[in-house]
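Field log, afternoon session.

UNIT: design team B
ACTIVITY: writing a sequence onto a fixed backbone
BACKBONE:
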């Protein structure tokens, strides 16, 4: 069965920052590590993600709902959250059916710049 990606010759490393590390620290780490990995001879692609295909790890994020959703009261909900950087899909050699992979034009807010 075609899984949609090719994990041959893919190296994965897990990096854990202290719990509640500020987003700026995560960004600083990625901005330092990923360019160095991409410049390493023999590396064709490098990216980062909060999960890998078929792993059981998930992250849950809370966020506020508009006031009218909570009948005027502050209300929040939760959702599963997965984050990836440009280069993640290429490193896994995902097969793109349509469109394009994420790249540096895609901002942290989820909209293409």
């Amino acid at each position: 069965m075609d899984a949609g990606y090719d994990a041959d010759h893919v190296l994965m490393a897990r990096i854990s920052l202290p719990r509640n590390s500020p987003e700026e620290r995560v960004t600083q780490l990625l901005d330092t590590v990923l360019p160095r990995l991409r410049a390493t001879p023999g590396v064709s692609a490098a990216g980062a993600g909060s999960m890998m295909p078929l792993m059981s790890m998930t992250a849950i994020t809370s966020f506020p709902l508009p006031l009218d959703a909570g009948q005027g009261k502050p209300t929040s909900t939760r959702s599963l959250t997965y984050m990836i950087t440009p280069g993640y899909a290429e490193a896994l050699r995902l097969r793109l059916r349509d469109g394009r992979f994420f790249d540096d034009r895609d901002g942290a807010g989820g909209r293409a710049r």
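LOG NOTE: The chain has two helices and two strands.
NEXT ACTIVITY: expression trials, pending approval
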